[in-house]
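Quick start: what a row looks like.
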Amino acid sequence: MRYAFSSLVVSFIFAAMASAADGEKFTPLFNGKDLSGWKIVNVAPDTFTVKDGIIVSTGKPTGTIRTERMYENFILELEWRHMVAGGNAGVFIWGDPLTAVGTPFSRGIEVQVLDGRETANYTSHGDVFSIWGATMKPDRPHPGGWARCLPSEKRCKPSPEWNHYRIECNNGVLKLSVNGKEVSGGSECSPRKGYICLESEGSECHFRNINIRELPTTNPAKEAIANDAEGFTPLLFDAELSQWKQVEGNAGHWKMNDWQLLYDGKSEAKQPLDKHLWTKKDYTDFVVVCDWRLPNKPTKKEWPLIDRSTGGDELGDGGKPKLVTVDDVGNSGVLLRGYEHAQANICCRPVGSGEITEFRTNKKYSPEVRAGVTPKKRADKPNGQWNRFIITMQGDRVTVVLNGELIIDRAQLPDVPAKGPIGLQHHEEAVEFGNIFVREL
């Protein structure tokens, strides 16, 4: 009798829970069979897979998958577990569709999924914080002054046990409940509409029972909405460099380090053109996003000042070019349509990166062409920091945005091929790339 009564009580409890869930009208974000409704941001095709109703993340490389569409106000419920003690992952709320400059993560609000790590500044029990340009006011002041809310109590179970998160998001306010109790959150979040992402960060992590209930809109301002997805696909996501041509002599010189591509400047390929790294695919009209930085130690070098209105050297006394000494840390570039001369330069020269050098310096081209491929300003970050190119190629016209600044606007590139691969330039100096995405037009 006692056993039957207990079973009846448990049945009533589960029935009540199911009824509440039904009343809240949750819908699955994960169908338990495949990754329909999710898009790869910057990881390999096998980083996130589905097995036995579970999303399995290998943790490698570091990066994310995201929902196909944006969400604004909602309640999200999910379960997670780490399969390795000390594992790291996360759920990103209101994220951008592309990663932020120089990082494998998107701007957004992160709900931490962490195991077995505990310091005064972070925990493994449901921290919530803003990352990479997002903003948030934590519910409680952080001991280090960070925009991070530490949980009010420790409720997470250790690896490999399952944990339940309920994430309530409304009008820029986020609240996290861990295993049935609210413990952390923040307000005044921006963005407050965007994509939901699952994070891969180093070790195996599982997700299941991902369900969402959408709430009415509160009409966020444009600046509080994440960037829109525009159909970009990643070109860097695996150690095998599967999207790039493999040429004898390049192995070990062009190589992946997690989400970054490192080049030591020492390709042993026999043909000069083969020392560059080229995509397997040819492109006609496209937009390419490419992060880069030059990691070398600076040396003092003299470079000429450039007249941006003509593309020619500025001249001083006696008609000689004016020179300026700079801290030079190397040179590389992004090559367009398989044509070495159509190169958005990466350099430390006074003219700035993004210059299409071979067209600017070739006097067979008109003054209009030479001036057009000269950057309007120097927009480079300080040496050693990450930079971002957004290069648009349409017909024989190229536009270059560097670190958010329009530096070349529909400049003409006479003689440029109509189609060809995208390349990363060999220049006998070390260079690092990351976050390369392409969208065909």
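That is the whole record. The helical segments are 2-24, 357-361, 367-372. The longest strand covers residues 181-190.
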